[in-house]
């Protein structure tokens, strides 16, 4: 079992609350109301701005070339995602400036500042464990929502979003993040530390679930 699987196995309810959230199920079924998706996407753009800061912090906390390159790969993946958000928001007549002017929702603030604080108060391993549900979870969600591949999605209303995370490029980003986590843990993790790291991982998964819920609540 790699470190990621161990963290998941230590926090099964938190993980399920995130991966199997109603928002994800409705998106997969194509029944998710557009208001919910749009609220999510605008907040997610604001979220990604803060996560770019997280990867800058990861560079700051790095001591090796490999760690710095991992941080750079995370930042590059964020810019690819933000391109998707800009494309989708453009169809609703929303420019990047419009989105950047939107107020951050509590769920956005709670999650992003939690991860930034894990990195500021802890070391690089704490930071990457707090990031793992986000980075690796979206790859799992993407695969779950495209069980027969991207082409089989046809004219699914959320095709572009699903294709982004189910696609080979993003799957490779997540696989590399997973290996990097193992590598970091081999250098910095003691068994005594594992429980603390699992607590961080569980909290981040719950904050992901709250983030989905924010999208659903916008439609009530
Ligand atoms: C709420 C929320 N959680 C996770 C992601 C996915 N994500 C965030 S940063 C990043 C790149 C890291 O390599 C990825 C894939 C998201 N967009 N929104």
Automatic annotation (TrEMBL):
One of its GO terms (molecular function) is thiaminase activity. It comes from the Bacteria. One of its GO terms (biological process) is thiamine biosynthetic process. Its EC number is 3.5.99.2. Keywords: Hydrolase, Thiamine biosynthesis. One of its GO terms (cellular component) is cytosol. Coiled coil: none annotated. It is an enzyme of class 3 (hydrolase). Pfam families: TENA_THI-4. It catalyses: 4-amino-5-aminomethyl-2-methylpyrimidine + H2O = 4-amino-5-hydroxymethyl-2-methylpyrimidine + NH4(+); thiamine + H2O = 5-(2-hydroxyethyl)-4-methylthiazole + 4-amino-5-hydroxymethyl-2-methylpyrimidine + H(+). Pathway: Cofactor biosynthesis; thiamine diphosphate biosynthesis. InterPro entries: Haem_Oase-like_multi-hlx, Thiaminase-2/PQQC, Thiaminase_II, Thiamine_Salvage_TenA. Residues 15-217 form the Thiaminase-2/PQQC domain. Catalyzes an amino-pyrimidine hydrolysis reaction at the C5' of the pyrimidine moiety of thiamine compounds, a reaction that is part of a thiamine salvage pathway. Belongs to the TenA family. This is Aminopyrimidine aminohydrolase. It comes from Nitrobacter winogradskyi (strain ATCC 25391 / DSM 10237 / CIP 104748 / NCIMB 11846 / Nb-255).
